[in-house]
Amino acid sequence: MTTLIRFLKDQSAATAVEYGLLATLISIGMIVGLGAFSDSLLAVFQTITKAIIGAGAGAV
Predict the structure, then answer these.
(1) Which domain holds residue 33?
(2) What's the CA angle centered on 9, arms 8 and 15, to 5 degrees?
(3) How far apart are CA 29 and CA 55, in angstroms?
(4) Across residues 11-35, what is the average pLDDT?
(5) What is the rounded CA–CA span in Å between residue 30 and residue 36?
(6) Is the pLDDT score of 16 beyond 70?
(7) 28-39 pLDDT per residue, tens
(8) Would residue 40 count as lying in a domain?
(9) 45 in a domain, yes or no?
């Protein structure tokens, strides 16, 4: 019985669970943020590609 009471009072596992939840929330936030940012980044690269192609076509 004392082992069960000691197990229920142990807080070290709760800290590990809290760190796990925090890491999960940060990961979800990064995935959502990068997903929204990738569209803007793709548009920038497409603009740069068109400018490079246009500059190369004018030089020929």
Answers:
(1) 16-59
(2) 95
(3) 39
(4) 87
(5) 10
(6) yes
(7) 999 998 888 888
(8) yes
(9) yes
d(Cα 6, Cα 17) in Å, to the nearest integer?
A: 18
Return the structure tokens found at 57: 């076509």
Is residue 10 assigned to a domain? no
In the predicted structure, residue 49 carries a pLDDT above the cut 80 = yes
Residue 40: other Cβ atoms inside 10 A: 8
Kindly report the three-state secondary structure assignment for every residue of 4-57. HHHHHHCCHHHHHHHHHHHHHHHHHHHHHHHHHHHHHHHHHHHHHHHHHHHHHH
Distances (CA, A) of 51 to 14, 20, 26, 39, 59: 55, 46, 37, 19, 12
- The domain tally of the chain equals 1
